[in-house]
């Protein structure tokens, strides 16, 4: 799947350019890296027993392409796929995926009948949702309990009621409760007391569910950080999103696992030119050259999801060295410092990539703009053309 069909023209007035191969600006996703990461995660969690791996591909595979990532994840041994919305789950089915698939964020008006017909497992937080699902059953349903995140899921006071309703529907043959699960608030901080508290609360929910006559196939609590850092949270299954894409869910805390970032974001230089000491760069002149230098124009901006906050903070990679962004990031373009060099139009500019050549990573960008790598990779898009490659196919 390519990115959005709409692509901007390179701004005019940039002088004569040599013919440029490749896109103006593209997101390249290496599916071999996804497979590599999925294998590492699967090996990690199955060391002590038969824990299943769910690869989370919501939000268009964290910006990497849901359908392509899903295929790579299945190839590498993912037991399950997980998405947030029913529409995402239906899109996966439409693409041909037929394996175990869970979605967990239904909204009023969602078509549970379509999900059930497509063999998608849905999640219920409330008795009302459960009744709606049972009405279009027989359905495979997982129950989500809130153990302390205070986001989705049944609050503690409603567990018994939810479980009783589920058991009644199950006895009547309208549903099968296939799973019971929850989600952690601070798994990227292993010493945070919420981890211990939530795990204890989850065990309490499991006991109560058993007392209510439920016998779910899978119980699960862990996301990527907990899969990596907290074996006691693994239960039957772990739900790994960010780590499947090769990014570290807990930077500075996780052990080195050899994960490989799958996404590279690159563009081609439109022009380079000299500016004089004292010249201001980009809107508002938030940066002035301290000495004579050269700058390059990169044809991507916040219209493509490049954070505006990256102005004067993040760097890109040109000709084997890091070049800082100078001044504000604009809607369609940004300016970088080339330190006196004048690379020709068409020169490759890597915004971020796996980092193995020294180029910035999504994690570097996240730190530069005060966010997490999840947001960097998930928001990048817009006029970038996305392309999938398979480095194992080309190098073997
Ligand atoms: C997004 C999500 C995950 C994946 O989290 P990562 O930190 O990316 O591994 C797991 N479970 C739920 C419920 C989620 O919403």
TrEMBL record:
Pfam families for this protein: Ala_racemase_C (PF00842), Ala_racemase_N (PF01168)
Highest taxon of the lineage: Bacteria
UniProt binding sites for substrate: 151, 331
Record key words, sorted: Isomerase, Pyridoxal phosphate
UniProt signal peptide: none
Catalyzed chemical reaction(s): L-alanine = D-alanine
Catalytic class of the enzyme: isomerase
Residue ranges constituting the Alanine racemase C-terminal domain according to the UniProt record: 262-389
Residue list for modification N6-(pyridoxal phosphate)lysine: 58
EC annotation from Swiss-Prot or TrEMBL: 5.1.1.1
A GO MF term: alanine racemase activity
HAMAP family (alphabetical): Ala_racemase
Protein name: Alanine racemase
Natural source organism: Nocardioides hwasunensis
